[in-house]
Amino acid sequence: MLRIFLEVVLPIFLVAGAGSLLQRWRKLTVGPLNPLTVYVLSPALVFRLLMNAELPAATSGKIIAASVLTTVAIVVVSLGVSAVYRHARQMQSAFMLTNLFPNSGNMGLPIALLALGEIGLAFTTVIFVTQSVVGWTVGSFVAARSSGGGFGPMLQALRLPILYVLGLAIVLRGFAVSIPSPVNTAVGMLADAALPAMVLVLGFQINKGVDLSQLRDLVTSVAVRLVGSAFVAYGVTLLLGLDGAAQQAVILNAAMPAAVFTTILATEFNASPSFVGSAVVTSTLASLVTLTGIIYALQHWV
Predict the structure, then answer these.
(1) Is residue 25, in this structure, part of any structural domain at all?
(2) In this predicted model, what pLDDT tens digit does every residue of 126-148 receive, in sequence order?
(3) Exposure letters 252-271 (e unless 16+ CB within 10 A, then b)
(4) How far apart are CA 225 and CA 55, in angstroms?
(5) Residue 1 resides in a domain
(6) What is the domain count for the chain?
(7) For residue 75, with 0-12 CB atoms within 10 Å meaning exposed, 13-18 middle and 19 or more buried, which class applies?
(8) What is the pTM of this model?
(9) Which of 8, 12, 91, 160 is at 20 to 30 A from 198, Cα to Cα?
(10) Is 3 a member of any domain?
(11) Domain range holding 92?
(12) Residue 83 region, left (φ>0) first, then alpha (ψ -120 to 50), else beta?
């Protein structure tokens, strides 16, 4: 686990720390960095992933289904807990954001490689692409609904370019259209900047500290995200008949901390960004402990 900390977790916190120090030094706000990430950098990242992904044919369908079904199951769990806790709409959206979407990218991919090897990395890439699409589409709707009901949240979500980038990538791949080299290079440059930008936003959020005013909700969210989701994913893999490295990859991804991009969406749509940022920071720190147990269990019992 020391190697995982040094090679995976520490670099993330170094980038976040750089953002945090800059914010403290220059008294900056997240300002245009948040909309820049939502409307430019993240669409470029998802577009590149969809255009370049080589999905393993044998089990990719089941892996995608398992990832989506796990998300649906956590939606049900989150709504149930929110009903019991009597959350207001804004808090319900924030609670769902932190529960639904694991950090499949800058933590999920390298940890899968270290824990499961090359085959685990290949399967986790399938999950990452799936989560990128589901996260930015469903996540946008969940965040947008914090400010109202009816068709308002859907209309707000439809403003985001990620939906149209998804459709464009599917069409281009379906017709085997090659992207001109200058465009491909430009998209690659933007995509490369997406993850660092997300972590910098997290660094800005860290300066606000961990808000303990909603401790019950925070502890519950972290427990659902790090432990409950892993058990749900295990049940889903049994239902779909997944085993071996594919099953382990689905479960390990489900046990990742809350995705950094949820802070982007929460800030953009004012879905209790303080709570979401606190959940991302807390779940990331707590995952050092929980992932140790999950990886041990996967290597010895699954």
Answers:
(1) no
(2) 888 888 888 878 888 888 877 66
(3) bbbbbbbbbbbbbbbbbbeb
(4) 26
(5) no
(6) 1
(7) middle
(8) 0.80
(9) 91
(10) no
(11) 32-300
(12) alpha
